[in-house]
Amino acid sequence: MEKRSALITGANKSIGFETARQLGLRGYKVWLGCRDEQRGRAAMEKLAAEGIESCFIVMDVTDAGTLQEAAQQVLKEEGKLDVLINNAGISGDQQVAPSEQSIDDIIEVYNTNVFGAIRVTQHFIPLLRAASGAKIIMVSSGLGSLEWVSDLNHPYSKIQAMGYTSSKTALNAITVAFAKELIDDNISVNAVDPGYTATDFNGHTGYRTVSEAAAGIVWLAEREGSETTAGFFFDGSRAPW
Ligand code: NAP
To answer: Which position among 28, 164, 196, 207 bears the catalytic label?
Structure first.
């Protein structure tokens, strides 16, 4: 059987790298989308040491030129893409009151977390259409859940990071928008909350491991057919929008 392929943005470390590792161990051909060549090659070598073959590809989600070249490379070498995982993300300022957060900081966060995911998805849709039953997975956050952040008894309501939390709420809305467009192409589009995970993103304060975080992403990648689409998931269960 032909190998399924998966492309992960922000794959050089943390949740993105572990997702690539888990998919590689399951027999996927993995494309490591990384903005820095050195870090990308180091990630590829780390996977190779575990016997996982991967391809590093330069992708800065804020730079459309790199995305166009990346899509052309995958087209030339593979002609299709089975799974696209929009994982690259930044936090912006944390624990800053909404009235104090600078517009420049919010714009930077949106340019990566929101416009980045849209840019990457738009560039790779032709390749996803060329596959059979392709999947798009948006790595969102529980902090994007309006139900959780507006519940004053929920720990997520205590986080002050308007740029980041609203960027993930927007990403959830974008998930639904693409899901509706692509349903007739048998392409599923879902968002996933990896949970509060120990990575550089939060100075390793998260209580979950990257292995647990990636497992929920891989679970979505392995859903059959497009019946699971336009959803938001945490550890294989529905999360509230
Ligand atoms: P991380 O350790 O900070 O890693 C982020 C990755 O994204 C890095 O590979 C980084 O590349 C890459 N990246 C950032 N900006 C990029 C750009 N413009 N183009 C391409 N790649 C870029 O974060 P993480 O914890 O693994 O988080 C991954 C995703 O999970 C993010 O979307 C985050 O919002 C989400 N998430 C994380 C948590 C958590 O608790 N960790 C919880 C919920 C959701 P460089 O190494 O080059 O900087």
So the answer is: 164
